[in-house]
Sequence to fold (103 residues):
Amino acid sequence: MRRLSRRLDTIGNSARGSFHAHSLLVWVGLLAAIGPAAATPLEAPSHLFEGRDLFNLQWAADPRIRPDGHAVAYVRTSYDIMSDRSRQSIWLVDVDSGTQTRS
Fold:
């Protein structure tokens, strides 16, 4: 037991042991800082996702840059609730101003 105790003291006093102690101290500090944030309960969402919410989703695809580089055309896809089908339209974005227009 004494031999083990002396060996642990030797490791603790070496540069390698102090490095591990420093690493441990850093981890303890990080956990202390993050702990309260991680322990707070998340708030419930204000709205649960339902089937009809699919009709509010839109996404962009197939971007094409105009040869002069001043505009980008893309296809915007959304869903129409009345026809229960997807619809696609081409939109043009002015690179300088960011304004979007439907083509």
User: Anything to note?
Assistant: The mean pLDDT is 76.
